[in-house]
Amino acid sequence: MPHTHKHPPRAASALWPQPRLKAWLALLLALCCRLALAQPLPFGLLGDTPYSAWERAQLPALMAEIAAAGSAFVVHAGDFKSGADICSDGLFDDRLALFQSSRVPFVYVPGDNDWTDCHRRSNGAYDPLERLDRLRALFFAGDHALGQAPMTLLRQSADPAFGRYRENARWEAGGALFVTLNLTGSNNNFYGVPGQTGPVPEFVARSAANQAWLAQAFAHARDQRLAGVLIVIQANPGFEAARAGRSQPGYDAFLAQLRQEVRRFAGPVVLVHGDTHRQRLDQPLTDPSSGEPLRNFTRVETFGWPFLGWVLGTVDARDPRVFRFAAKPWQAPAPER
Predict the structure, then answer these.
(1) What is the CATH number of the domain that holds 199?
(2) Out of 5-9, 41-45, 325-329, which region has the weakest mean confidence (pLDDT)?
(3) pLDDT tens, 138-160?
(4) Is position 23 within any domain?
(5) Distances (CA, A) of 116 to 28, 125, 258, 303
């Protein structure tokens, strides 16, 4: 019987030269990344909630709906309590636990009800700056979003020159850049507490941080050739007042910078805010010379009390519009009055 010589199976590196194998693996990984990027990516937007015990009871189910829609993350545009609720540690702890329960990454942006207006007697007569420091310690610790799923954020506090501004963050998703700024209602704390004359030092320092962060964000988006930029703030910055020539010192510089950056950026730019409780989608930023809307700019306002709901956003770098939005009113019956 002839002797058969059995050879062990050859290693993959012997069948395929190592450099060529590595090149193909790199190409395959790049292709997979491109295919993942090409898929429309949903995300959720909400704000000015919860304002009542009923809304607080509804929020877990609403957040579950956002997650069930396939949202990659959710952003809360500020005001996690009404303007009459006490700014207590207990309330802050409750909202933190609520946001941490999100099944998808949860990004929170501070609102005026959450710190600027805490000096009100009905709010407990707190020092607003102390409340802001408390928010920073609780809601912006570490370099990840809130919620049960991880999402890494780049915080402005990584720059020692702006070490206190942990709430200003950015991240990339779906081929676009998402940016948050601490820019609040109540004229952005320009005048501080009653009896002071603005601009108060806190406003001046935070405005400088916001200006630097916004400029860096657009520079990054241009350098990386990202398809679009979405910015989230709490305040309605007063587009209509600006067009009518009515100065709002808390927002004038921001609107001027925003207009300049939008005009320099080739892709779509979206500003998301809450504050005035009127869910809408429009194009209120205009060219001062012509009065015509800047066509690559869109404003999205979230739902707000007494209307509960969220906005489903989609980012898709293949879509010329890049961002699309659909309002999602909450369908649960309202409480009996």
Answers:
(1) 3.60.21.10
(2) 5-9
(3) 999 999 999 999 999 999 999 99
(4) no
(5) 51, 11, 23, 21
Position 337 in a domain: no
CB burial readout 34-70, b (16+ within 10 A) else e: eeebeeebbbbbbbbbbbbeebbebbeebbebbbebe
- Predicted TM-score of the model (pTM): 0.88
Between the CA of residue 184 and those of 20, 48, 117, 275, what are the distances in Å? Answer: 55, 12, 10, 8
Provide the residue range defining the domain that includes 220: 42-329
CA–CA distance, 17 with 12 (Å, rounded to integer): 8
Average pLDDT estimate for 75-85: 98
Total structural domains in the chain?
1
In a domain? residue 129: yes
Tokens of 69: 């829609």
Q: Evaluate if residue 92 carries a pLDDT over 70.
A: yes
The pLDDT of 225-253, averaged and rounded, is 95
